[in-house]
Every structure is written in structure tokens, then in C-alpha cells.
Amino acid sequence: MGKWECTVCGHVHEGEEPPDECPVCSADKSMFVEIKEDGESVDQAPETGAHPDSKLSLSASLYAKVSDLILQYHLHPIAVHTPNGIVPMAILFLFITAFLGYPFFETSAFYSLIFVLITMPVVLFTGYETWQRRYRGALTSIFKIKIGASVVTVLMLLTLVIWRAVQPDIVAAPSSSRWIYLSLSGILLAAVGLAGHMGGKLVFGNRKN
Questions:
Q1: Which residue(s) pair with 15 in the sheet?
Q2: DSSP designation for 21
Q3: What CATH number does the domain located at 2-35 have?
Q4: What are the backbone angles phi and psi of residue 9, rounded to the nearest 5°?
Q5: Residue-averaged pLDDT of the chain
């Protein structure tokens, strides 16, 4: 029985031949390489995103070094903890204000969402570089879901922050608009959670308890 490694996410499959689809990242069968007994790949897929420094301009060389640092120090998993950690807290504060009437919680939520919005360019950029370099820019279902969830996250953040800036009492004052605002915040929470879940599946999906 042979072992086959997915070159997109690193999942290892045991069998006579690779699966038709990776159970972790949904990569096609062609993205698997056979692993020899010594642990090396029989036919290692070429690394994409490599940067031949001798042929790069100064700006391109700097970009290449930044990209290398992102992968070397796992900057995307670090950056993505900002929305994953702060957004649930901010949404909880919004609902506390709506149901219990403590406006200072809503103020904290507002500034928390602003902070998350400011950090999103870093989250998206590090995510893009990781996707291109580590996962070869694969457009399998798991990456499509992550990209879609990221787009929804940014749109919801912009909507919530701008709406609150224009209408400061949107959550504190009882109105039908308040429930629309809270519903959008729920969509934001779901999008952040979904993106985090897909990222966790990529990292831990090939491990057994």
C-alpha cells in the first residue's frame, strides 16, 4: 500500500492510488505525489511563487522578501486572530446594548469594529500570499469558501462602521433599523467563523484524534 501526499494542503492518503479528490482541500487527484519509504516525494511538484532574486528589480525583490517572511513566520495565522477574536466580542457587546441598555458596550463594539477593519488589509494580504505560495493558488471549494467569506467580512465591516458613524444611536435606540443592523452583525460573525473554520480544516484536517 502506498502513501500519497496532496501538494496543496499536505494531506497524506494511504492506498494503492491517490483519491479522486483531497478530503481536506478538495484538490484534484493530479495534485497528489507518491511518498517513498524514506519520506521523500517520488515526483515533487514544482514550487510556485518562487522568486529568482537575480532577475528581480529592487521593488520586486523587496516584495519577494516580505512574501518569504509571511510564510516563514506564519504571519497570516497570526493576523487572522484579530477578526476571529475581536468580532465575536464586538457582536456580543452590541446585543448587550440592545437587550440590556448599556450604551458604553456599544461604543466599545464600534471602536473594536473600526480596529478590525483597519487590520483587514494585513489579514487579506498575508492570506493571499500564503494561498499563492503555500497552496499554489488552488481554487478548490475550500479556498472559494474562504475567499467568499473574506469578501463578506469586509463588506459587513464597512457597512456596520459607516452606518454607525452616520447614525450613532442605531443600536441604543429601539427601531426596526436596529434589528437590521444586528442581523448584519450576525452575518459578519458567521462569515468570520466560516473563514476561520476553513482555515482550521486546512491546517488540522489531515490529523487524527
A1: 2
A2: B
A3: 2.20.28.10
A4: -120, -10
A5: 89
